[in-house]
# Entry
Amino acid sequence: MERVNGWRNALKEVADLAGMVLGDGYEAWFVQSFVEVVSKNLDPKIFHVPLHFIGRDALVQDINSWLQDGSHGAAIALLYEIGGVGKTAIGKSVFNKNSYKFDGKSFLSNFRSKDMFAYRDNFFPTS
# Structure
């Protein structure tokens, strides 16, 4: 009986939640804003990353700001540096924070500079 009462209380709590109101707006815009709100509130973490990078939080915030600006029209972000400085961890953190904003997304890691041209030619053909 205690379990049933627990479910009953949970359902009452959910029933009392306030929702979003469409008002006089367009339904498509309402649905899009609803999807954005839900996406932001879900746990979007795809990759496990440390909570804090020593000396790297500012860089992650700079990349996030650059991606959120939207004025640059970039489709690809590339992190390139010598090995062992945390590029993959930085990339995973940025991906986790921004992936919900894009319809299509991918995360490529562990490829060498000679491979970049093959990726470019396969994904972005010039003809």
